[in-house]
Amino acid sequence: MTRNAQKPLLAVLAGEARTPPPVWLMRQAGRYLSEYREVRARAKNFIDFCFSPDLAAEVTLQPIRRFGFDAAIMFADILLIPIALGRKVWFVAGEGPRLEPFDPVNFEQLERGKVDEILSPIGETLRLVKPELPDETTLIGFAGSPWTVATYMIEGGGSKDRFSARVAAWQNPAAFDGMMDRIADATAEYLVMQANAGAEVLKLFDSWAEGLPEPLFERVIIRPTRRIVDAVRAAGVTVPIIGFPRGAGTLYPRYARETGITAIALDTSVDPDWAQSVLPEGMPVQGHLDPAALRAGGAALDGEVDRLLDSWSGRPHIFNLGHGITPDVPVAHVEQLLARIRNGR
Amino acid sequence: MTRNAQKPLLAVLAGEARTPPPVWLMRQAGRYLSEYREVRARAKNFIDFCFSPDLAAEVTLQPIRRFGFDAAIMFADILLIPIALGRKVWFVAGEGPRLEPFDPVNFEQLERGKVDEILSPIGETLRLVKPELPDETTLIGFAGSPWTVATYMIEGGGSKDRFSARVAAWQNPAAFDGMMDRIADATAEYLVMQANAGAEVLKLFDSWAEGLPEPLFERVIIRPTRRIVDAVRAAGVTVPIIGFPRGAGTLYPRYARETGITAIALDTSVDPDWAQSVLPEGMPVQGHLDPAALRAGGAALDGEVDRLLDSWSGRPHIFNLGHGITPDVPVAHVEQLLARIRNGR
Q1: What local confidence, expressed as pLDDT, does residue B5 receive?
Q2: What's the pLDDT at A1?
Q3: Which of A13, A90, A118, A343 gives the lowest tally of CB atoms within 10 Å of its CB?
Q4: Torsion of the alpha carbons at A284, A290, A295 and A299, rounded to the nearest 10
Q5: Which residues touch B181 (CB under 8 Å, ≥6 apart)?
Q6: How many beta-carbon pairs under 8 angstroms link A with B?
Q7: Cβ neighbours for A83, distance < 8 A, ≥ 6 positions apart
Q8: What is the pLDDT of residues A44-99, one digit of tens each?
């Protein structure tokens, strides 16, 4: 048996259905853990925190020590790529990320070839984490997908409906698509660097894939994702890639078939019966418990865990949330979740 | 030929495919019109504006005079029902609605039977508008759906992901569903009153139907909507009802089949090919141009109009946006849209 075959998460990504399924949680290294908040307080701001390999490695390992999750996901942020592209990014406490708003017509001003240099601390985080992990734990690297990253770059931060980014995509397709290619190419370099630093799985977060009409979804979600996957493979990286086009709705099957990803992460709103019937046969899925059910706990949490286990029975499945864990979740609810998955009902 | 049969919008809602399709725009009475801003400035706040039948009737008629849309939708707001339930609602300029946060465990404190009294000015708006409309123009009344209204009541305003409302729905189903019944019953009374005041079509806006797992969608979207439709029909009201569960994604077909609505309004993200194959045969659809394409104008707007006309050819179709028109849309873009629909490519 190879070392990889011993890891439940890699076995599932290779097409094997496991009972119980491997489990990890989006944002498992996060504020719901007191030990995270203690380490976070040592960094002077959020960006510095991401760029401090010792601190980032420590919080990456915390949820593994406490819960024995089947995967550790490197601690970082999806908005590091804009920094590598020469954009300024900062975080306002209690509000979220801020960027200097960027007009896609200026896409040729975006930096190229600085990824390895500027984001080298993230590789260092992976190198620090890897030897500390239990043999059965898989190390995941990640990046934001170009559309999601572009919405923050154009809007200057989070926004209710990414309206300015959509208008820009409609108004000047040549400039917009040029910008997307720059972001995609930098993202591919970043992911290759992560794999070379020890990441055994790569995940692409397209957190704002929702609400797009089909022609835009094709242009800003499918095409750039395909470009990244192709570039990563062309660089000789063979690790599984999980795609997460959150909110893709009826367009999930197209994303699953046309981007070249290995596995698809689903959001809370996806009807499993529908997804079972339309996703490519045997493609591993990840997800997709409602974080609000985890926050609620009790019978609702047990019921939703059981429903998802039943729904995905027989398909290679990685248990996860449909969105990140929220800071207000009691640790006891995470323990309840894990007991329900691992020990049964 | 009856008067109704002469109105293109009612013909489509009766199952007839029209070329070109009738067209109106969500939030067509809105800030993108200078004449709207002029009237809006006469009211001391947004709630007073909604409760001033002369002002509300005037802004309802403005887009009909300017563009000859096929429908006038009464000017009001989805957050008037909480007022009828005894909750305080106010609007903060530039920010949006505010409410005193409500805990569903207190649902028995919600007022009953005050709808006709408190919301009578909305009936008056309809009575003022009706005789002023051209013969071919249909008058639409509306309400927010219980889930969407409940999210504002619980969160105390808009929120990024309606998280507190979802947690409440999971944690205390009995209280939550009791609250939903109260909201649904008040909403049904309100819609019956609108029909009696002259509304020829009723629309239910479930603006926040997105992101719900199937069991919650069943409980908070389908069941309360069915309750409203049943109550409206039991009161002898026979006008068509358009349902708009925005963001329902793969659950649109269940909503279309199980709520008793006449027609389904679709959001921007719905793939028309998929929807054609899964929606009930012959059910009229409304939608669903990206408001960002309308803002962009030019070739993108023409292309998207053509795509939607082609996609829905042969099905009873009301052309509309997939979400409300934004305040920054030039009037010339609305004119371009109408010319493209009515005069062809």
Answers
A1: 57
A2: 45
A3: A343
A4: -90
A5: B224, B227
A6: 121
A7: A47, A89, A118, A119
A8: 999 999 999 999 999 999 999 999 999 999 999 999 999 999 999 999 988 899 99
DSSP A200: S
Q: Which residue of B has its CA nearest to A301?
A: B170
Chain A residues whose beta carbon lies within 8 Å of the beta carbon of residue B295: 163, 167, 170
B183, B150 in Cβ contact below 8 A? yes
Tell me, what DSSP letter sits at residue A185? H
CA distance B247 to B251: 9
Mean pLDDT for the stretch of residues B113-120: 96
Beta-carbon contacts of residue A34 (< 8 Å; ≥ 6 apart): none
Verify whether the Cβ–Cβ distance B295 to A167 is below 8 Å.
yes
**CB-CB under 8 Å, B163 with A210:** no
Distance from the A192 Cα atom to the nearest Cα atom in chain B, whole angstroms: 32
Structure confidence at residue B344 as a pLDDT band (50, 70, 90): confident
Residue A269 dihedral angles phi and psi, to the nearest 5°: -85, -5
> Which stretches of chain A score pLDDT less than 50?
1-4
Q: Measured between alpha carbons, how far is A99 from A158 in angstroms, rounded to an integer? A: 9
The torsion angles phi and psi of B49, rounded to 5 degrees, stand at -60, -50
Dist CA B264 CA B287 (whole Å)? 9
- Residue pair A37/A166 in contact (Cβ under 8 Å)? The answer is no
- Tokens 């995967």 correspond to A71
Q: Considering the entire predicted model, what is its pTM? A: 0.96
Instruction: Give the closest-approach CA distance of B206 to chain A in angstroms.
Output: 15
CB A73 within 8 A of CB A24: yes
Please give the helix or strand (H or E) that residue B175 lies within, else none.
helix B173-196
Distances in Å between the Cα of A319 and the Cα atoms of A223, A246, A322 are 28, 16, 10
Say yes or no to pLDDT of B1 above 50.
Answer: no
Cβ separation of A214 and B272 shorter than 8 Å? yes
Cβ atoms within 10 A of the Cβ of B174, count? 10
Name residue, tokens 């609810």: A333
What are the pLDDT digits (tens) for B26-66?
999 999 999 999 999 999 999 999 999 999 999 999 999 99
Q: What are chain A's domains?
A: 3-343 (3.20.20.210)
**Residue of A271, A292, A301 with shortest CB distance to B214:** A271
Paired strand residues for B243:
B204, B264
The pLDDT score that the predictor gives to residue A326 is 97
Find the helix or strand (DSSP H, E) in which B289 lies: strand B285-289
